[in-house]
């Protein structure tokens, strides 16, 4: 296996003393896990942040081997991680995507939607600008993984929050039933913060 492609880093788990196991979401190959040597070192620590857009080179000698990944930062989400609401949104959508998508299955529409959502979270003047995109992304994720639902028409923040509330039981039941509760806890924090701006 040899892959070089833009990717969204959706999770990074420490491995050994300095390495990281990164899960990378690519448009054509879907989610690919890779071993990033020195991922917790001073040079790569700012690169290996969920939500970052990276240029990934992934190599493996066989399909049964965990690939080695080399990452170059293309776009950092780091500046927004000090802001509670954007940080919660980035954390939630990356954790959700990393938890539910099977490896090496392409989902180009989800890749493009996640990329657009992360851009909106980081560039919109407030959550009113990206909350509808968040509700659309969750809805698209359910549809792409075979749990139905229609594409919602979202007029503004209030309607986006109603849709988010309606989607939560489906996400918990269908997408996160076999995973740890801490993934859904990230969504709970985000929803509480969104509720404060709607009040």
Automatic annotation (TrEMBL):
Keyword DNA repair among UniProt keywords: yes
Signal sequence range: none
Transmembrane segments: none
InterPro entries given in the database record: DNA_rep/recomb_RecO_N (IPR022572), NA-bd_OB-fold (IPR012340), RecO (IPR003717), RecO_C (IPR042242)
SUPFAM superfamilies: Nucleic acid-binding proteins
Alphabetical UniProt keywords: DNA damage, DNA recombination, DNA repair
Protein's recorded name: DNA repair protein RecO
Organism: Qipengyuania psychrotolerans
